[in-house]
Design brief:
The protein is of the alpha+beta class. It has 2 domains: 36 residues; 162 residues, SH3 type barrels (Roll). It contains 5 helices and 10 strands; from the N terminus they run H-H-E-E-E-E-E-H-H-H-E-E-E-E-E. The termini are far apart.
């Protein structure tokens, strides 16, 4: 009888050790998975979040804090829909985001494995989107790292910079309305508000 109990105890101990080892392996696998998660993947998970909860906040390099919902994610930028009271979609380069605040359930949701992204989304860089704004002649407000902002229409978008024709916000780009031109490196842009229809 004692031997039966002894073997039962050994089986329980072995099962316990096996479960502990498996839990440790699962934890290590999860750590490894999380080490490979990119910011764009986490932001992409917020596109379909439950919007009845607290709106995420985005603290940007120029000191602005935007309360906004994520509406799209590209290779190096995120499109936001500002919360009540603000008009126009917003484009934010990843490099200008200082931090993102959100409810804890959304934080956990954003860290879960995400569905496979399309190859096209991975190729949609900020430059690509800005060239589309050039084609559409969409008026914008560029908010710079320095805290300044410029309003106008993007005339050209190169590999790492854009040409902006300055004019009053809300007015179309006409030669007689243009008050100047600026070349702006992408690295100087904190965020962009679109005055026209949203892209995403």
């Amino acid at each position: 009888m004692r031997w039966d109990r002894f073997f039962d105890d050994l089986e329980d101990q072995l099962a316990s050790e096996w479960e502990a080892e498996r839990a440790a392996l699962d934890t290590e696998a999860e750590r490894l998975r999380l080490s490979r998660v990119a910011l764009r993947d986490r932001l992409g998970r917020l596109v379909d979040r439950d919007r009845s909860t607290t709106t995420p906040s985005f603290e940007l390099s120029d000191g602005t804090v935007l309360l906004a919902e994520v509406s799209g994610v590209g290779a190096d930028w995120v499109a936001l829909e500002p919360d009540h009271g603000r008009s126009g979609a917003v484009l934010v380069p990843f490099d200008s985001m200082m931090c993102v605040g959100m409810p804890h359930p959304d934080l956990l949701l954003s860290a879960r494995p995400s569905p496979a992204r399309s190859a096209l989304a991975d190729r949609l860089t900020l430059g690509f989107v800005l060239r589309d704004l050039v084609r559409r002649r969409t008026p914008v407000a560029l908010h710079l790292y320095s805290g300044r902002h410029l309003t106008g229409t993007i005339d050209r978008a190169g590999a790492d910079h854009l040409d902006l024709a300055l004019h009053e916000p809300g007015s179309p780009r006409r030669a007689d309305a243009v008050t100047g031109h600026r070349i702006v490196p992408f690295r100087a842009v904190s965020w962009i508000r679109l005055d026209g229809p949203a892209l995403v």
